[in-house]
Amino acid sequence: MRIIAGDLRGRRVKAPPGLATRPTSDRVREALFNVLAPRLNGACFLDAYAGTGAVGIEALSRGAARCVFVESDAGVARILGENLRTFGIEARSDLLLMPFARAASVRAIASGCFDIAFLDPPYGEGEIRRALRLCSPGSLLCQSGILVAEHDKMQAMPQTEGTLVLSRSLRYGGTVLSYYVQG
Known about the structure:
Helices cover 28% and strands 29% of the residues.
């Protein structure tokens, strides 16, 4: 898996062995950042359920000013930390080792105003709906922020969640990116 564009283009992202993580494919990341491109420069980015950190690293590579990575698995977070050090982007990154629900209540993240939040929880566990509830504007997102949820095509997503409104969903094979904005 490689960074697709920006300052870190072509750099290889280290991933843990096995199937415990499901990295966002290059095709889906390319599509995601094509949509987000106008919002990225200087943005504060949240990569929740970060795994390898490929999405957040891609955001930093393409011009985001800061990224907060949230990962609950200590072994995966260790590899993510190695990726941040290898790419020399630790100063623009925060890595929180904890479940997203807990991170959303921690001052370091709850007081942040994220321009873009990316949620990619494990498929099929119902976590995406819980995570959406924690991200409404006024809590984690800036008023003009956007939230993107990556999920399985079989997962039905709500049209609204709190003050968030589904603006569009784009499908790539078995993966869907659902974009939410302030309603």
